[in-house]
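Hi everyone,

Forwarding the result from last night's run.
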Amino acid sequence: MRNNTMYCAAVLVLAILLGGGSLANAVTEKDVLRAFIKSRAQTRANGPAEPDTWADPISSFSHLPTKCEPPPAGAREADRITALPGQPPRVNFDQYSGYVTVSEEYGRALFYYFVEAPYEASSKPLVLWLNGGPGCSSLGAGAMAELGPFRVNPDGKTLSRNRHAWNNVANVIFLESPAGVGFSYSNTSMPSGDTRTAVDAYMFLLNWLERFPEYKGRDFYIAGESYSGHYVPQLATVIVALRELGLTDVNLKGIFVGNPLLDSSNNAYGSLEFLWNHGVISDEVWYNVTERCNSGGQFEDKACDDSFDAGDIDTYNIYAPVCIQSPDGSLHSSGYLPGYDPCIDSYIDTYLNNPTVQKAMHARTNTEWSECAEGSLNGWTDSPVTMMPTIGWLVDNGLRVWIYSGDMDDECPITATRYAVKDLNLTITKLWRPWYTPDNEVGGYVQQYEGGFTFASVRGAGHMVPSFQPKRSLVLLYSFMKGVLPPRTLSPGFSVWSGV
């Protein structure tokens, strides 16, 4: 972990608006994440230490139920999607969506979208995908802009097929969590936080498996990105703790987390280091960050208070085009990046607020869907400064843990993740080396540690890796589920489609 001197400077400069697109009024996941990091820094500076729910997970979660009532007859069939409005022809997989109640007492229900694999779905594993925020939608971002089977077209009415969707190799659930995000809801106003989010996600899974009993005992993986650097390992911790007590048969094999927020202080410092390494901030600003703060957490002089102009860049990918809004209200990209449209958030918003789409997906009528829940940061009651003790506990308990980073992201940059990984103090078993795609391209770099813990980069990707490098993300996912490192060289006959 970086020292306090570096942290205090990093938090100050991180608070400066770094750009991130020209649609200033659109609240996105990166806006929420940036604000959350800043708010948590202030909370830790001004408030008492929080109790650590995660220090002894077996004691913390042993009270949770391990069985639930069977769903009403026909619940699964009622969730079946006949067809999404505007979907392309010849869709050859089953889709479901609907609500799963996670708290009868408080009226909390989480919305899910589930897509089965087109071929041999009965033999493929189950993956639960969680977006971050905290408080942003896995349906809008994960399913519709990243790894789902469809992408929303610019007309906001039709869909196109994503050739590199993750349901090519797995059956995938997209969960809108916590309650209040997207179509999910709560009838009672209650503070949100990491612990409640993890417990509700566990209750969702328990109930969902009753609705889809053929997936009980299936190889199961949890994946996500961004603030899911908290969500994913925390849900895994609940499951592993109950498994250690012999109280659950959920067959959790591993977790797969991209560009995660793992340590707030590492992230603040690593963000600035990334910008300096990529020529966004000057040597003078970097010198002020690293040299001119005292160790008491206060700024020694005005030199620490330097600001900088990053320009209109997207901090999710500092080399990607941004979305420009013309005076007539039309949207267009500032440049061209194959397969990527920086304006897609607007298309998704239009599509998911279409009453016909909401009816087809069995969402509550007249729901105003948005990418991130309004006020999602208000009252967020618990969030560990660092997730590395939890990650270490999972590794020690035999869980397969892979963390990956798109190397063009400044929100949760690879520099910060490397500092967090170092804090695990694990012995390296396989040294950092390139990995290849079936196209004979370097897909990124990978290193493995004792216990099988794996850290990989994805070359040319930003924060949302499947959006910027869909093929490379699929190769990495396939390797993770097989439990083998991605290819060192292009082997004859290697294909990510093997067994599909």
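The first strand starts at residue 95 and ends at 103.

Cheers,
N.
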